[in-house]
Every structure is written in C-alpha cells, then in structure tokens.
Amino acid sequence: MIIVLKSQSEDKDINRLLEILDNKNVQAHKVNGLDSKVLILSGDTHKIDPYSIESIDIVNKYIEIKDPYKKANRLFHSEDSVYNIKGKTIGGKNIALIAGPCSVESQQQIEDIAKKVKRDGASFLRGGAFKPRTSPYTFQGLGTAGLEYLKEASRKTGLPIVTEIMSADYMDQFVEYADIIQVGARNMQNYALLKELGKINKPILLKRGLSATIEEFLLSAEYIMANGNDKVILCERGIRTFETYTRNTLDLSAVVAIKRLSHLPIIVDPSHACGRDWMVSSLSKAAIAVGADGLIIEVCEDPENAVSDGQQTLTPFCYKKLVKELRVLAKAVGRDIA
Amino acid sequence: MIIVLKSQSEDKDINRLLEILDNKNVQAHKVNGLDSKVLILSGDTHKIDPYSIESIDIVNKYIEIKDPYKKANRLFHSEDSVYNIKGKTIGGKNIALIAGPCSVESQQQIEDIAKKVKRDGASFLRGGAFKPRTSPYTFQGLGTAGLEYLKEASRKTGLPIVTEIMSADYMDQFVEYADIIQVGARNMQNYALLKELGKINKPILLKRGLSATIEEFLLSAEYIMANGNDKVILCERGIRTFETYTRNTLDLSAVVAIKRLSHLPIIVDPSHACGRDWMVSSLSKAAIAVGADGLIIEVCEDPENAVSDGQQTLTPFCYKKLVKELRVLAKAVGRDIA
Amino acid sequence: MIIVLKSQSEDKDINRLLEILDNKNVQAHKVNGLDSKVLILSGDTHKIDPYSIESIDIVNKYIEIKDPYKKANRLFHSEDSVYNIKGKTIGGKNIALIAGPCSVESQQQIEDIAKKVKRDGASFLRGGAFKPRTSPYTFQGLGTAGLEYLKEASRKTGLPIVTEIMSADYMDQFVEYADIIQVGARNMQNYALLKELGKINKPILLKRGLSATIEEFLLSAEYIMANGNDKVILCERGIRTFETYTRNTLDLSAVVAIKRLSHLPIIVDPSHACGRDWMVSSLSKAAIAVGADGLIIEVCEDPENAVSDGQQTLTPFCYKKLVKELRVLAKAVGRDIA
Amino acid sequence: MIIVLKSQSEDKDINRLLEILDNKNVQAHKVNGLDSKVLILSGDTHKIDPYSIESIDIVNKYIEIKDPYKKANRLFHSEDSVYNIKGKTIGGKNIALIAGPCSVESQQQIEDIAKKVKRDGASFLRGGAFKPRTSPYTFQGLGTAGLEYLKEASRKTGLPIVTEIMSADYMDQFVEYADIIQVGARNMQNYALLKELGKINKPILLKRGLSATIEEFLLSAEYIMANGNDKVILCERGIRTFETYTRNTLDLSAVVAIKRLSHLPIIVDPSHACGRDWMVSSLSKAAIAVGADGLIIEVCEDPENAVSDGQQTLTPFCYKKLVKELRVLAKAVGRDIA
C-alpha cells in the first residue's frame, strides 16, 4: 500500500502519522519526490482502514496495491477451478447448460420441463421455490413444496438442481434438496447468509449484485470461501445502468476480467440480464464467445401464463434450436458442450 | 392497467389474450385508436405478471397506472407519520438528529461519544455492533457485546439507540437492546429479513439500496408494513453512479419525491453518501432545506484511529458547530430542532 | 399516443385539455376505465410536447406508442442497409474490419500500419487526425496534415479511410480526404454538426454517446438522415456505468436491440469500450457472436510509445491472430469476413 | 506521478521503461517496497500518456497525483472568481438568480416574462433561441430572431441575457446579443466549440454533461480558459443515473466538491435536473443551502402551452413565492440575494 502525502506536509504531522501506522504494526518507507512525499507501507497493512487514513489532513491519497481477495484470486491458484456435481461438470473446457422455469409452479410442470430441457441438451435444472419479489403482493414461491418437487424432478431425470436460498433458516432443506445453492443478486452482500453458506459443503452459485463492482463481487465470493466452502460459481446477470430498453445491461467484459482475476468458474444469465426472450439467443452466443463457463436460461412450456418473468422465458422449441447453435459456436472457440 | 396492442394485431389473437385475462378475473375494455388498439383493465389486476403479458406477441406495452405500494402510499394516508420513541419524535415538524460512531469499539468509547453528541444537540445515538463490511478480513463489529455497550450508553444519557441488524437470528437481542432497528443499504432487498422485521413492534430505519429506485425503496418499506409493522423510517444515503470523487451520489430529489409519494418520514445520511468529512456539513444543510425529517451523522472522538469509516466522520467539535448552524437553517424553512 | 388522466379529474378540466389538443390539431378519444380515464390521441401528435402535457394537473401519464425515429426505423425499411465504399461493404452478411492507430503520428507510421492491417485482414483504415482529448494540454492530433497522410496511406493500400470530424469548419477537407466520417461519442448530440453531415453524400460512422440511450442514439442518426444523408453506420463503444475496472461497459445487448429496431448497420469498438488490450480479443468475438456488422479496433506497431491510448491497442501480431480466430467464429454464426 | 510496478518485474524490463520515460524528459526515482517496486516521477510528466504507460507489461498502476486542470484550480487561485455583468454579479457572497422560459417563442412572450421575472427578483433573463432537441422533428428554436427578441427584452428591462450557443458559426451574433453564452450539457465536450469560446471576451455558462465526472467538467472549463477566456461559470444540472422518476439526478455534492477544487462560480439548474415543476422549489432551497452561487430556473406564463419543457416550468406566481423564501434561506446561510 502507498500513502501519498500533500506536498506541504510538515515533519511533525508526518511523524504523527508514522506513529499511528507503527501502532498497527505497519512499517512505512518514506520517499521524497519533487512534487510529493510518498510512504510505501509493509507489514500488517490489512489492519488499516483506508478511510481513516484518508481522514488525516496531510494525506492526499491512499492507494491499494494488492487485491483484497485471496482465496478467489488467480494469483494464488493459477488453475481453473472445476467442480463435479453428480457427474456433471462446471468449470474447465466444458460449458455447463442450466435451464428451467423461473418459478416451480407444480410437480407436473417441473417434471415436464425437466424432461424437455434434458432432452434438448441442458445438464442442470433450475427453478425457484423461494422467490425474491420486489413487491410483497406478488407470488412468493411454493417454498418447501417447491424444493420437494425439484428433488423429485431430479430423481426422474438425473439433472442436478440449482435453486435460490433467501435465508439461512432453510439451510437444512437446501442442503438436502439442492445440488447447487443459488444466492440471488439482491443478497450478494447479505453477509450473514454468505457466512452460513461458507460452513456447508455444497457448490454455491453467486449472482452479481445489480450495482456491484467486479471487486465487490469477488469479495462476496471470498466471504463464502473464507468461511470454509471453496466451491463458488460466479454468475454475471446484468448490471443496472441508465438504459431502460433492456431490464439490465449484460456486462460481458466482467466475464473477461473475472477469468483473469480469479480461478472460479463464471457463467452468464442472459434471461434476467435483458428481460426479453428474443434477445436471449444472441446474448447466449456472445457469452460463449467471450469465454463464459456456462449459461443459466429460463425455459418454460407456456411463458404467457407463467406466474413470473414470462417475458424473458424461452419455450422448449426455442431452447432446443439455441442449444444446437451453441454447440457449433462452442466448437469454434475451442469449448465443449457435453 | 393498460395494455397497448400492436396495430396489426388480429382478432383471434386478441381474443386469446382476453381469455388469459378473464381466467385471472381481469376485465378488459377494448378501444380502437387510429394508430393502436388499447385494452383498459379492471378487476384483479395485481394478479397479472406484467412480464408474462409482455411476452405475448401482439402486446406492444403493458402500462401500470396504480402505484404498487399501498400501506406506504400517501394516497391512502394523507397525514405525515410521526413516531414517538422514548420521548423523542421522528416525523412531523421536528427534525431528528441521530449521531454517533460508525462502530462501537468499547464501553468507554460509546459512552463518551454519547454524552458529547447529546450535549451538542443529538436526540438519538447511533453505533454499529454488527458491521456489514465488503471484505471478510476487516473488522466485523463487537456483536452482542456492542449491543450491550449501546444499551448502557443509552441508560446513562437517555438517548434512544439506532443500530443495524444483519440477520433475523439476532432478532431477540435487537428487540431488547435497540430502540430503532436499522436495515443497511445492502439488505434493502433481503426480503426474508424484512418479513421478520414486519412481525415486531419497533421502528425500522430502512436505508435505500445503492441502486434502488424510489419505487423499489417504497416496496421494501411495504414488505415490512404488509407483515404488520407500520413504523418505518426511510433513509436516503446516496446512490451509486459513475462519479468517483464522492463515495456515492446523495440523491436529494428522492427526498422531495418520497415526501409526496409516501407519508413515511425520510431522513438523510450525508456521511455515507459522500464519504468525506468536509462535505458533511454542506450536505446536511441541503438535506434540511430540501425537506428531510432528520439526519444521521457519524461523529467520533478520533476519526484518524477509528477502526472503520474515519474519512467521513466528524469530530464532536465540528458536530457542535454544525448543529448550531442547522438550528438557524431549520427555522428559516419552518422546521424545529428539539 | 395515450394520455392517462388522474381518476378524480373533473369534466371542466378535461374539456380544457381537449381544447389544448384540438388547437394543435390532435383528436382525442376518451375512454372511461374503472380506475382511470384515458385519452387515445390521433392526428398531429408529433407537435405535442410531452413535458407540457404532463405539466397539466389532471394528467397522470403521457405515453408514447410510436417510435420517434422514422428514417432509421426498420418498420419502414425492413431490409438491412448495406453500403459499398470503394469496393468494400458495410452491412449485410459480411463483417467489416476497420483497424489502425488511435492517432496519426507521421506519414511513415500510418503507411506502415496500413500495410500491416491490410495484410492481416482489415478492409478499412482508421486513424485520428483531429483528436477529442479530455485535457486541453494533451496531444490534439496533426490536423490537416494527418488527413493528408491518411489519404496517401489509402492511395498506397486501397483501404478506405475512417477518421473523426470535430467541427463542421473542416467539412470540405473531410469530404475530400475521408471515405467514412466518424462522429465521436462526445459529439453524438452535437446537433449543429449532425445537421451539416446530413447535407453531404458520404457514409457517417456515428458513435454512441457515453450515456446515450438506444432511442437517443437512433434519434441522432435520424438527425443526419432527416437532413438528407441516409448512409449512417452506428457504433457501440461502451457506456458509462459505476464499474471502474473497465474504461466503459460494452453494451452488446444494444447491438441486438438495434438490429431489431433499425435497418442501419451497427459495428462495435471493443478497444475504447474496455480500455485494456488483453480484453479486446474476447470482446471482439462476443461482438461477432451477438450479431455486429463489423469491428473497429486500434492497432499500432508500438503501443508503449503511442501518443494516446496505448493501453487498449493491439500490436499487428495480436491483430493477425485475432482476425484468424474471428474468421472461424464468423463462419460458425453464418457470417463472412471478406 | 507514480508508477507501481508488478512485484516480479525484472531489471531489464524496468530499465527499458526508464528509457522510455527518459526520452520524454521524465525522471524516475525508483523505490523498492517489500511488496512492490515504485517509480516516483518528476519532470515533464504531462507529456506522458497514462494509457500507454499502463500498456507496458510490468506496470501495475499509473497514479496521477496532480490535478490535470490548472487555470480552473483553486490551488493556484485561492480567491473566488466574481464577474460583473452589466452591473449584476455572479460569484462571491451574492446569489445570482437567472430566470425565463425554456424557448423564446415571440417578442411579446419574452418581454412579458422578462418584466415579470425582474419584478419577482431575477437579475438575469434566460431563454433559448437555438434549441438542442433530441428529435430532429421537434421545435428547434427561432434562431437569430430569438436572439433579437432577447436583446430587445434586455433593453427594456435591463436584465442581462443568458442564451445557449450550439455552433461556433453563430459566434458573432452571440457576442453581439448575449451577455452570458451558455454551453449545453450535450456540448460540454464539444472541444471545437469550447476552443472558439476561449477566444472571446464574454462569460461562458458551462453546463455539466449528463455523464461527466467532476474532473471532466473542470477540464472542459479548462479548455475555455486555456484558450484565453477565464470567465467561466459552471452549472450543475443533474446527471444520468438509473433513477427514472426524476429526469436526471441533481448532484449537489458536486457543488461542494467544486467549491473546494476550483475558484469558479457554480450555479444550479433545478428545472432540468428534476423535470417536474413541484420539485423545483425544494431543490432550489437545497442548492442555496449547499453553497451554490446562483440558480437558473425555467419560468413561463403558460407552461401547459409551452412548445418545450412545460413540465418543469414554474409560473411567475410560483417563482415569486420561491424567491421570497430563498431570500430568507440565503440570509440563514450568510448569503445575499441582490
């Protein structure tokens, strides 16, 4: 870490700062430039609160050099992380295809769609049992019953289940029923939940918050990993910008950045990113081309009558066509779709 | 609600849409304009998922007319909500002043600062016992001990306590120790937590999420109210924009909007909004002038050595000066500071 | 267009509104819903200022139904626009590759790089002679000399020239020297310039403004087309968001949207979007996969010594490798690279 | 400036970088920290392109220490700039009130409103003769005739004129008719125009671009000043964010920041920032409280029939009431309204 001092800083004030640092077991090497004085720090620099240092009058800037995340950092784990989940893989050369409805609506519905997405190429089944809805007056999901329906659909098709948790209160059920536990965008910084997920041994699909920076996203993964669970799958699902034509703005450059900064697999959710069914296909292709490790796509039999998110949902017919095109594309960029 | 159809829609498709609506107990009045066909809906329109309707080919736009929040809506509750909390008020003509350190660090620290902010004009004491930190490796708060220190500081000064909850697991402790329970910006859409807070009888200070729209903010308040607790205090604390000079961008127009849309009191947190101590004073004045019902400001004895957020924290000396100026200003805009 | 009235509107106020509309030659068809009254308009609705209508007390919402752009609208021009520029095409099945340095620095430099990018697959040469720089103290371009160097490089290689205009004062020179005239992101809403460009007969490459919505972007194209020049090429080059890791956020969903909304070709500038050379290759592939009609990429011999934008610039070696990979990808999505 | 090198940088690569710097007449002082190597630069550092330096493999970060703007910088001009314009002042203790319609519509209209805003307390008259409109099909202003009407209104009332220029082609007319020449938000980075405005001797009202950072805003002022005209007045008018309830988000923290960073006066345009007439009053008060040097407010006789921007425009009745309240408020914060 580096502290840039104001050029007119006086020695007595600098000495006081050195003392504050020394009390925190941080050593400072002082350098006089022509235009500025600079302190180069070493030691227990993680104990320093940058904001407190910048509150000191003589301090111009405090500059972080090291990334604040460690376990998620590729610097200390150069190989791509690859997870094997009930015989299916996420990470590595293979591209994982996750598909299913926004919400579980009934046993029949989820089983039917599970069979279809499996037939059409998906390796994982998604479906929401607990739904985070902006309004308290809209459908909140079937809850535990939804988890049971998913489990049964998984038993019949062999597809591992991806489903969203909203509170650690239901952790036992999720550990029993889900194969990958999803944390939604709105809970990306629900640290109490992340800590609990760090204590279990099950892959976590962590969605990027609507206005989370790449660094904050990796730090949320770090919360899970620092608590003991290193099986984190990241998911870019669009960020909030001024553009209103699309629901969110899919940030594919984040995929490129994260592949370089971290060893964790990162998949893309084009459905929530754009909110329009006719965009899903093109954005899925772009995600594969840019280097994503998988796609999570909303598919249901009857989007018009869906209780949630119909506008962005593909029919099985469209999904089948898309997967076929993705196979060609994956090959062109040196990836496989199992 | 209104559905605008594409101009070339055919009758058979329109009839199919009318059927879908009818199944949901929604009546549609059809009107033919010159350029477009329009359906005006009545009945159980809240059961309709707008995204599902927009997924239908012949639909051009689905337009909401009514606000989706009810209990928080001024339309059905024209008087300002005013809460009396241990003899202090929030809402109405009076401006509530909440002050204290970012984190509770020790019994001594919190008692000292409590006495000082009380002396200087604050009516409520703030302090974090459980801290939502971006990195898992930074100070996470004293936890339960912090709550106890706050309670003791309250006992000695008479100031009611405002402190942040991060998980419903600690609800009992918060009900016992806190007078106002704060929900941080990162948890604004932690619906599991909001529902639990709806079941207790204690004022909730709900902070706006970093990228939450005004409507989403009011819907999060609605989550608490719909579950039974109508004592919600809103807090604007800056939104995330492209500007990097300030930590966030304080959105004072949101205060004006919310005073019109809702009867709930809304206060402003200038400290977190700007992240720079020398801005706090000017932004506090602007908040009063724009019509805010209170201010929550970080004050601590020794910002340079604070374990968190030093940069944006006022010393008691500066806070005292600010409150003096705020009294003059409040009077000029017809408000009181008790 | 539709006007939604407040439910409590009185007849005398509605009649006054009808009069205002009638004065502007707009007919209103009034419909009474259960919850709201609605006016459906026809006639000269483009003469209405939405903001003025919304300033009327009884008006709840004013809703546009028709897109405000006409000549750029695919609705009235269903075929893709394709331009032939000195034997090279932009638009249609072919993907146009534009490459070259950020700034023209010397005759030697631009000729050398022109030969190399041609050899490596580019069909068009880019290079800045007039440079829009954030600071008045940085290199502002060689000006007219730069245009002459570009022309000479074009003469020797046969590559048509793409270069940016900053003021209509130099229009004659640009008409003489350039084959495609670029309007930079900062000038996307410089309407005086757009109008002048509408009066010439030369393709215009219009870059999206940093915070321009898709609709505003198409309306800026409309400014050029409405003034007589219908050869507009759109360019997505990243929008400004809260993310700071990348210079801007490349918005590839805008490409998908624009291909549906408009018949104009749209290309992508990955170099300016990300500002990091190692991202350019992946983002270029994503752009092709998503359906872009071309790529404009910064290539120079010696990025480290470039007078501007070195960080995002590829060497000819990297560009050659990229084009090879793009050819494979283009084929996989049914496109050609000539 | 500081260059932070990657920890594993080798000497031969560092020496090559030192050579590149030396060629640009920049000296580098090398310091070895424990975790990183750092170069502290002196000499002609403004000749360095940060992006080119960051394109070098061994470079981790390039850090600017000095502000890139000089003439606009308070560091070199500690006193507030104050301009006297036909006997009225902008800057200093006085708060300037600028008012008038969005567009000049006729001689009668502008004279009537000029008299009224003068009577109600305004010191300057605003009105658009050349209008930057998003669509080419909406009213574009009366042009030169509008300037003449403004001049006549000024002659009759004594109010100096503020009006927007869109192209340097009309510079002579603006120099003749206007007292303050406005540059609109969309032209904030129209550098060709800024350079021309730097060559005249007339105050320039420079509006902040919709997504301009504070630093970019000051650099645009610097463009005018570096070309010889140091009479720049800045204007905060709202930035573009995700919030859609307001037209833009008024960024009052930018006012506080700019008062510290620069000596230039900064005023606020609440009308364009919010786009809603009933917000203008509260935001005007907040602007005064936060420290703005003036307000530019849209006022017209008949907002409902205005050809542009009716929704955000006050009637003279409301304006009069507002000015009365602002006088009280200005006094409370130690400012005057002449």
List the helices and strands and how they pair.
4 copies of one chain form a homotetramer.
Chain A: E1 2-5, H1 11-23, E2 26-32, E3 37-43, H2 50-54, E4 59-63, E5 83-85, E6 88-90, E7 96-100, H3 107-119, E8 124-126, H4 144-157, E9 161-165, H5 171-177, E10 180-183, H6 191-197, E11 204-207, H7 214-226, E12 232-236, H8 252-261, E13 266-268, H9 270-274, H10 277-290, E14 294-298, H11 316-332
Parallel strand pairs in A: 7-8, 7-14, 8-9, 9-10, 10-11, 11-12, 12-13
Antiparallel strand pairs in A: 1-3, 1-4, 2-3, 5-6
Helix pairs in contact in A: 3-4, 6-7, 10-11
Give a nutshell description of this structure:
Chains A, B, C, D: GO terms for molecular function: 3-deoxy-7-phosphoheptulonate synthase activity; aldehyde-lyase activity. Chain A has eleven helices and 14 strands. Chain A has 338 residues and is an alpha/beta fold.
Description:
4 copies of one chain form a homotetramer. The first copy, chain A, has 338 residues and is α/β, with parallel strands linked by helices. Chain A is built from 11 helices and 14 strands. Chain A folds into 2 domains: 2-63, Alpha-Beta Plaits (2-Layer Sandwich); 74-332, Aldolase class I (TIM Barrel, Alpha-Beta Barrel), CATH 3.20.20. In chain A, strand 2 (26-32) and strand 3 (37-43) form a beta hairpin. In chain A, the strands form 3 sheets. Chain A has an 8-stranded parallel sheet with strand order 13-12-11-10-9-8-7-14. A 4-stranded antiparallel sheet of chain A has the order 2-3-1-4. A two-stranded antiparallel ribbon of chain A has the order 5-6. Chain A has helices spanning 11-23, 50-54, 107-119, 144-157, 171-177, 191-197, 214-226, 252-261, 270-274, 277-290, 316-332; strands at residues 2-5, 26-32, 37-43, 59-63, 83-85, 88-90, 96-100, 124-126, 161-165, 180-183, 204-207, 232-236, 266-268, 294-298. The two termini of chain A are 45 Å apart. Chains in contact: A-B, A-C, A-D, B-C, B-D, C-D. At the A-B interface, helix 2, helix 6 and helix 7 of A face helix 2, helix 6 and helix 7 of B.
